[in-house]
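Listing S7. Sequence submitted for prediction.
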Amino acid sequence: MADALEPSRLVAVVGAGAMGAGIAQIAAAAGHPVKLYDLRREAAQKAIGDIGKNFVKLADKGRMSQEAASAASARLTAAEGLADLAKAALVVEAIAENLDVKRKLFAQLEGIVGADCILATNTSSISITSIGAGLTAPRRLLGMHFFNPAPLMALVEVVSGLATDPGLAETIFATAAAWGKSPVHAKSTPGFIVNRVARPFYAEGLRLLTEQAADPATLDAVMRESGGFRMGPFELMDLIGHDVNFAVTQSVFQAYFNDPRFTPSLIQQELVNGGFLGRKSGRGFYDYSEGAAKPELHAESAAPPPSSVAIGEQGPLAAKLRARLAGSRIEIKRGERGVNAPLMEVGGAVVYLTDGRCAAQRAHELERRDVVLIDLALDYASATRIALAGADQCSDAAYQGVVGLLQAAGFAVTRLADIPGLAVMRTVAMLANEAADAVNQGVCSAQDADLAMQKGVNYPNGPLAWADAVGLTTIHAVLKNLAAHYGEDRYRVSPLIQRKVWTGTRFHD
């Protein structure tokens, strides 16, 4: 493994915006002398002042000593011009996301810095190969993609273009690790790892909203309280800004030659057209104006618990449901065994974990009216909410029996419209599918795909590790059934998932 850059080596950062200032702070805290350059020198000076205040705050909170804070601040200087960066061992560019502007900057830098200087771009979406195409030595250009806010977010995507020297990529990987970050290697393809693999998190939420599965606040609650995500898709899109999120989706969609898997949403386009950009405009899926009413989360009213339930052995919920019902007055009986047996039977209702078919289809195929589907949860032992869908044919009495049982087990029960795959399951299946395709296409390893999604966007589990835990046969079935239901290539199964199902292997064996 390559060695990290020595802390005595000069690091230069071009661009004194939020990302550039954050990167400069990280490098200075790691012991490097840092020169910060911006076309507006006052912007660089202000950023250095703000970074110094951040170091003081960290010292006040006991996260670094007063001496270390003072020393880190002293290592920061504003550059008068690009010529001041001549002795840099690493230059990190954090300027506007514009290919021509970045090319021009790196062409200038190539004539200023030494032959051993590594050139890095913090781009989140532009091809590293394209940026380096005009350089005399494109081998020394790579991506060093930090996430906002850079001092707090652990992930750094180390992105190699076609011409990038693998040894230099290893040096930057080691350097990012020495700076206290969690680096991953990625190949320069649209969206790299995170911005590509994360698309289904937003896309499936928007699809659920389009099909009126529930309102945004209720769907967000399901994804948080059942799926374990820190934020639901709608509150996260409001935080990011719909103009930014929609632009990234459009960019990835166009870069992949209009692959239907990345199709943008008409709902989000309408929000952007109307100026409803989220928190920054005061209105998105939620109203952020002063005094705005907090949206109501929809959950089923209290239903009487059944006298008994027959619980099978299949699925991740069975054992944990038994434990959650311990101490209740509900008699727990032994349910049916077998691969196709229901998860449980409550009164006249049969309950299955969703497999990508809607409840109406399951009822039709089983020739049973009272079919209820239950959504995936990150951990059924600790989840506070669970989502259900009843078949259109299902009687209210049979459905309410299931509700009463789950409420007795301590769940808030949210009813979704009978949408195939429900909310958490279809989202996790599509995240795993996209991550699997990234691995299959050599963009990254399975380990790096999972690490990137956990460290870059705070997912509760890596999508491939999550798929392993759910079972790849289940994920495969969900995707196949979604594809059959919609008749869209959007839900095609990754060849890598298909192979693993055929061979009985997992991503993290």
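Caption to Listing S7: primary sequence and predicted structure tokens for the chain studied. The chain has a mean pLDDT of 96. The CA atoms of residues 70 and 308 lie 67 Å apart.
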